[in-house]
Automatic annotation (TrEMBL):
Domain Competence protein CoiA nuclease-like, residue spans: 58-181
A Pfam family assignment: CoiA_nuc
This protein's name: Competence protein
Organism: Levilactobacillus zymae
Domain Competence protein CoiA-like N-terminal as annotated: residue spans: 15-53
InterPro entries in UniProt: CoiA-like_N, CoiA_nuc
Length: 356
């Protein structure tokens, strides 16, 4: 902690002197001042008196970053370090009294489980403030992955789906923005360094188009995975095998090189393949009522998600289903009839041996 109570007044650790009567502003238990040549001044609870408000270990990065972020966000309104919210038993690293809506800045430097992020985010929403998660160096070194996206991805005007990283050493913000997932399931995004709050509000100078993938290259990598018997594709191949098909021979009609929000598990291409297979396995009328659960089951099969901690995509499956069905109608595989569609003919699967 950077602040402690002394005689009902808050004392900043950088201005404090050693004494025995400092107390935690949240739980009012005794705390001790730590300072030295190699240590940024801070207060810590005594081992026998842990705080009722859980927090991460006070690393030098975390302590320094909180002060830097209080300065960075000062143009939004008065900032307060380690603001205690007793009704939800939480302490914001930096509280910004923004006129339109208060902001709770969380500078996350240590590992934090999904439940912890969810609970803290829900708590801030409960008291009507916007949680602004910024990640430290241990996260900045990681490649884009689902754990990062599921816990910390947010949405900001101009930046759209994004992750925010604070660089204590350079005193600057890095935004990984316009996050996407290519059709094969790989995560991507554009990186922009932001020097001040005005630049953050303005958005990136340019936005690059999402890259397109090569379906031949995807088939090549899938063939390698299948040859190594890695578990990644096992459930998909089993689903197709039971219906008389092999993944590598998927029909051109199911192919795509498009991108989606980064929540589609193994990717849009696999979802289209398993959903298209399930659709053309139907007998009798093809109706929206029959397709909706099929689309959801296939979404689950590729490990898709309709929400992260901070962002939800309630109509994503419906949109993906409508898009593929419209393409199949346009290509003549389906025809529109009252109440749904009729299968005109089925897409042709290629021999996996010829593709090997």
């Amino acid at each position: 902690m950077l602040l402690a109570e002394l005689a009902d007044q808050l004392v900043d650790a950088q201005n404090a002197t050693r004494r025995q009567d400092y107390r935690c502003p949240a739980c009012h238990e005794p705390v001790r001042l730590h300072r030295g040549r190699q240590v940024i001044p801070y207060f810590a609870h005594l081992p026998r008196n842990p705080c009722v408000i859980q927090g991460e270990g006070e690393t030098t990065e975390h302590l320094t970053g909180k002060r830097q972020l209080a300065d960075f966000f000062a143009d939004w309104g008065p900032t307060e370090l380690e603001h205690v919210l007793p009704t939800i038993q939480q302490r914001a690293d930096v509280w910004v009294a923004r006129t339109s809506q208060p902001v709770a800045v969380e500078f996350q430097c240590s590992p934090l489980a999904l439940d912890g992020v969810s609970e803290r985010t829900a708590g801030y929403h409960q008291v009507g403030c916007y949680p602004f998660w910024l990640l430290g160096n241990r996260y900045a070194r990681q490649r884009l992955n689902w754990a990062l996206i599921e816990r910390f991805m947010g949405w900001l005007p101009h930046w759209e789906l994004c992750l925010l990283f604070w660089d204590v050493r350079r005193h600057r913000l890095r935004v990984t923005h316009h996050l996407y997932q290519d059709a094969a399931g790989h995560f991507g995004g554009q990186m922009t360094v932001v020097a001040n709050l005005a630049t953050l509000m303005a958005g990136p100078a340019q936005v690059d188009p999402y890259p397109r993938i090569s379906l031949n290259r995807v088939r090549y990598h899938w063939a390698q995975e299948l040859a190594r018997a890695t578990p990644n594709l096992r459930r998909i191949q089993e689903f197709l095998y039971l219906r008389g098909h092999h993944l590598l021979g998927f029909p051109t009609a199911f192919g795509t090189t498009g991108s989606t929000p980064p929540v589609l598990g193994r990717g849009l291409l696999l979802w289209r393949i398993v959903f298209g297979t399930a659709l053309f396995g139907l007998t009798g009328p093809v109706t929206p009522a029959r397709l909706a659960p099929l689309a959801q089951d296939c979404f689950d099969l590729v490990n898709g998600h309709q929400r992260t901690v901070r962002v939800s995509f309630p109509h994503l499956i419906e949109h993906l289903q409508a898009q593929l069905v419209a393409e199949l109608v346009q290509q003549g595989y389906l025809s529109v009839v009252p109440g749904g569609w009729r299968i005109v003919h089925r897409p042709r699967w290629r021999s996996a041996q010829l593709l090997a």
